[in-house]
Amino acid sequence: VYNYDLLDGLGALSKNNQGQNTIIYDE
Question: Would the pTM count as exceeding 0.70?
Answer without folding.
Answer: no
